[in-house]
Amino acid sequence: MSTQTENKTENSNPVTLKDLHTENPRWCVGCGDFGIVMGLKRFFLDQKFTLESVVNVSGIGCSGRAPNYMNTYGVHSIHGRPITVALGLTLARPELNIFVHSGDGDALSIGGNHLLHGINKNFKCVFIMYDNELYALTKSQTSPTTRKGHKTNTQPSGTYLEPINVIRMVLGIGASFVASTADWMPDHLAKTLDAAFDHKGFAFVHISQRCPHYDPDNFDHKTSTWFSFLKHPDGIAPDKRIADKTECVEHDPSNLEGAFKYASLDRRYFGLFYRNTEKPTYDSILRNQIKTAKPEPRSNILDRYLL
Ligand code: SF4
Predict the structure, then answer these.
(1) Residue 72 has pLDDT above 50, yes or no
(2) Which among 55, 64, 119, 288 could disulfide-bond with 60, CB atoms 3.0 to 4.6 Å apart, if both were Cys?
(3) What is the DSSP secondary-structure string of 45-111?
(4) Ligand 1 neighbourhood includes 207 CB (under 6 angstroms)
(5) What is the rounded distance in angstroms from the CA atom of residue 22 to the CA atom of residue 272?
(6) Does 25 contact ligand 1 (Cβ within 6 A)?
(7) For atom 5 of ligand 1, which residue has the closest CA?
(8) Residue of 24, 26, 29, 33 best suited for mutating to test ligand 1, as the one with most atoms within 8 Å of CB
(9) From the alpha carbon of 212, which atom of ligand 1 is closest?
(10) Mean pLDDT of the region 291-304
(11) For residue 37, what is the enclosing H or E element?
(12) Each residue of 119-151: pLDDT tens digit?
C-alpha cells in the first residue's frame, strides 16, 4: 500500500492560491464554509500538492458546492453518496489525495448507512463533516444534529428530539480517527487537517460550521467560554489564538474510554478524540489480495460460490 508520504505528489512548479481559485462561492456572507474551503486550500499549498493529485468529493447541500470552488479534480455527487465515489477512487487510484465533503443531513440522514460502512471499511480518505446543525440548502429544515427546541421550517414550534451525538456515534461504529474543530479557528483547522491526512485510514473530521443565514445565534465564535480544547503531545495542539482564553484538558487520543467520556459531556470539546493506527484498511487488504492472488481457471473460482 502507498504511504502518505508517497501520496504527496511532488510539484516542481508550486501551486498558488490563485491557481486553486475557480469562481466566487455562492454562499451567504459570513458562512462558515468559506473558512473551511480556505483552510483546505492553504493545506493543499502547504502539502505542495499538484492540482491533479487532489480529488474533492461531495454530496448535496451547501457544503456540496465545495468541490466547485477548488481547481482540483472534483465530484459533486448525489445526496448521501460521496463515500461510494471516494471508495472507488481510493481503490483504483491510491496515489490520489481524497477529501470528502458532507453536511450533517448528507452524512447522517440520507448518507447515514454509507457513513457506517465507510467507517467500518476504514479506507484511506479525509472525511470532512460540515455541521451547521440544520438543512440549509433546502431552507432550514431539522437535521439529525439540530439542537432540541430550535425552530425550523419543518418544526416551527421547536425541534423535539435530542440531536444525535456525532462524535459518540462514530466512536461507537469504530472510527479509527475522530477529530473535531470549527470553521472560525484557522490554526486549529489547519492542524486538524494535517493530522487527518497523515492517518492511513478513514479520518473523520467534524467541523462546527456557522450558518448565519438560518441560525445566526448558533456557535458564538466571539467567545470561548462554551468549549474546551483536548490537548496531548500525540494529539492536536489547541488553537494558538484562543488557547489561553479557555480550558485545555489533557487527553491521550489512544484512550477510547476517555474519548467517549469527553464526547458524552454537554460541553463541546475540540481536538483529537481518538486515533487507532492498528485498524486494517479495506484498500490495503484488497491490494494485498490482488498482489498475492495466483492465476487459476475461472471455473475453479466460480465453483467456490456454488451452494
Ligand atoms: Fe452557508 Fe447557511 Fe447560507 Fe448555506 S444557507 S450558504 S450554510 S450561511
Answers:
(1) yes
(2) 64
(3) HHTT--GGGEEEEE-SSSGGGGGGGSSSEEEE--TT-HHHHHHHHHHH-TTSEEEEEEEHHIIIIIT
(4) no
(5) 32
(6) no
(7) 136
(8) 33
(9) 8
(10) 93
(11) helix 32-46
(12) 999 999 999 999 999 999 999 999 999 999 999
Q: How far, in Å, from the CA of 273 to the mean position of ligand 1? A: 27
Distances (CA, A) of 189 to 50, 89, 179: 21, 25, 10
pLDDT in tens, 251-286: 999 999 999 999 999 999 999 999 999 999 999 999
Q: Could you tell me if 165 and 263 are in contact, meaning their C-beta atoms sit under 8 angstroms apart?
A: yes
The predicted structure's pLDDT at residue 1: 35
**C-alpha 7 chain-centroid distance:** 18
- The C-alpha atoms of residue 36 and residue 70 are separated, in whole angstroms, by 12
The whole-number pLDDT of residue 14 equals 86
- All structural domains of the chain: 4-303 (3.40.50.970)
Ligand 1 pocket test, pick from 26, 58, 62 with the greatest ligand atom count within 8 Å of Cβ, gives 62
Q: In Å, what is the CA distance from 291 to each residue of 93, 95, 299?
A: 15, 17, 21
pLDDT on residue 279: 97
* Torsion angles phi and psi, residue 266, rounded to 5: -65, -35
Q: Is 129 helix (H, G, I), strand (E, B) or coil?
A: strand
Calculate how far, in angstroms, residue 138's C-alpha sits from the geometric centre of ligand 1.
10
Q: With cut-offs at 50, 70 and 90, classify the pLDDT of residue 64.
A: very high
In order, the DSSP letters of 144-176 are TTPPTT---SSSTT---SPPP-HHHHHHHHT-S
Which numbered atom of ligand 1 lies nearest the CA of 27? 6
Determine if the pTM surpasses 0.90.
Answer: yes
